[in-house]
Amino acid sequence: MADQTRLAWNHLLDSLRDAGERWLGPEWGITMDGDLPDGFRNLTHILQSALYSHQEFDIQRPVFRRIVSPTRSFTGDNPDALYFEAPVSGSLQYRVRGNFAGAVYTSFTVEAGGHDGNYPTGLAGVLNDTEIDADSNGDYEIWLGGPQRSRNWLALPEAGGRITTRHYFEWSSPAAVSQTLHVPLSIESTSPVEAPPKWDDERMAAALQRVINHVRTKTVDGIKPGQIVPSWVSTTPNVFHQPEKPGTLALAAADAAYSMAPFVIGPDQALVITGRWPDCRFANVCLWTRFSQMFDYVNRPVSRNRANTQLEADGSFRMVIAHSDPGVPNWLDSEGRMYGSVFWRFFLPEGDIETPQATVVQWSDL
Fold this sequence. Notes:
The longest helix is centred in the N-terminal third of the chain and has 21 residues, at 3-23. The chain has 2 domains: 3-217, Sandwich (Jelly Rolls), CATH 2.60.120; 256-365, Sandwich (Jelly Rolls), CATH 2.60.120.1600. 16% of the residues lie in helices and 28% in strands. The N and C termini lie far apart (68 Å). It has 366 residues and is α+β, with helices and mostly antiparallel strands. The chain has helices at 3-23, 36-54, 201-217, and strands spanning 65-66, 81-88, 94-99, 105-112, 122-128, 139-144, 153-154, 161-168, 185-189, 256-264, 269-275, 282-288, 303-305, 317-322, 331-333, 339-347, 357-362. Helix 1 runs parallel beside helix 3 and helix 2 (36-54) runs antiparallel to helix 3 (201-217). The strands form 4 sheets. The chain has a 5-stranded antiparallel sheet with strand order 1-2-8-4-5, with no helix packed on it. It is globular and about 70 Å long.
C-alpha cells in the first residue's frame, strides 16, 4: 500500500485549505472580499509552480524550468524578463550552456536554502554577464561548483540550493508575452549518475512533500506582512523611498537597486509620478497586486521601461496611474483598482538614482 503517498497527498490538501482560510484571511490582513479573487489566483499559481517545477526537482539531473509567465504569476514577476530555476547540490559540479539571446542583462544567482521546494533563506552568490566570456554569437559555457575558476564560474554552498537565472529585455512590448522569444539554456552534472529509482511510495511521497513545502513557505509558513520591511520599501501610500540594493535578500538581485511603495487613488483620481531614468543596464516600473502579482501585462499597459517611456524635453519622465486612458503619454492602467503596489528596478546603476515623486490629482485635471 502507498501509505506515505496517501499521507503526503492529504497533507497537501490540508495545506491548501489552511492557506485558503488563514493566508487569505484576517491573520494575514486580508479583510476585504475584493482581495480574494487576486489571492486565490495567486495561490493557484503558487500551486502550479510547485507542481511544474518542484514536484520533480532532481539535483543530479537538473533541468531549467521557467519560473513565472503571464499565466503563472507570483513573487513579484516582471513583464520585461524571463526567469528560470534549477536545483543544485554543493557536492556536485554542473556545466551550464546558454546564449545571451539579445538580453541587456543576464545573471545566475545561488539561492541558499532553496531546495526541496522551500523558500530560499538568502542569496549565496551571483554571476552576471560582466563575468561571463561568450563567443561572437553570444554562446557561453559556465561552471557551477567544483574547482575555482577565474571566469565563468560560480561557487555553490555546501548545503546546495537553487539557481535562479535572470534574462532582461528592454523592448517596447513585454518580452515575457512573446511566444517566439527563446533563451537557450541547459544544465547538467559533470559526474555520471545512475538512473533514478522507479516511482515507488517513498519517491512519490517525497515529491509531494516538495510541493507542500513550496506552497506552505510561500503562504502560511512564510513571512507575515510587516515582519520584514527593507529600507527601500515604503509603507506610506504614494511615497517612494530612495532606491537601494537589497543585499542578500532571498530572490532579490544583488546587482539591482529597488524602490517600492503602495499606491492609493480614488475613483476620480490619478497618480502622477515624475522622475528620471538613471544610467544603468536595465530599468523599469511595474504595478503589482498586494500579493506581489503583476497586473495584466498581456492586455494592458501596466509597466514601463526606457524603451516605451516618452521623455520630457529635459530628459525626465512623467507617468500617470489612472483607471482609464487619460490621453497623455506613459499611462499605467490601474485596472480600476483603488490600490496596489508600484515597484522600480534599476540594474547595474551608475551614480545616484533620483527618487521618483508622486502626486495625487483629479483625473479631470490631467
